Amino acid sequence: MLTSRLIGHRGVASLAPENTLAGIRLAAEMGVKWVELDVTLLGDDTPVLIHDADLERCSSSEGLVIELRRQDLKGIDAGSWFSEEFAGEPLPLLNDALTLINHLGLGLNLEIKTHSVDPDKITRIVQACLTNNPLPADKLLISSFEHDTLQAWYRTEKKTPLGYLVEALPDDWQQRLDMIRARSLNFDWQQVSAKEFMMVKDAGFELYSYTCNDPDQGALLWQQGVDGVITDYPQRFPIS
Question: Which residues are catalytic?
Fold first, then answer.
């Protein structure tokens, strides 16, 4: 198994603003070994951690992420929406997050969000960041809902493990996984049945479920063969 059994969703999304350096630090303090984070591009091709295509939900600002330039980040508060404790938390650069993750010894499931950016461009930029600030080979999983993005990654870099994100299991799931020599299928635990995900396991792929916040359900998923549970609430689960 590549990752740990428990993966902090967007850091520790229940206790700190998602996709922030504060959330990454808190995950490490709690003993979480792996975190899941989202990366996308600003309009000047700067890679940053944020899930949405716009700023409204998780910052003090408004507008589209693609309309920003790096110098605009100084005016964005990505923490006070969550609580005053995190007021002034920056919208992180991918490079800063990689530096921190390396320092803390965490594993990273990095989800690529193109938000209409060319898949070849964003994969090339993220790959360059990882070349300049590499993680250990056993500490990185690249994932995406967009199969063409994973294909773009695989065309130029074949060593990094890839995880294909799905909600419901597509009919051609094995073809899609085989095309990119995927390491894992990352699935919505509420939309894929135990019978379906065991077919995936029997085909030799790892399974990671999102976003499971119920420890009893998480225990059942582990019992049924799921390798890792991605959760907003790692504090509810046994951390080992």
Answer: 9, 51
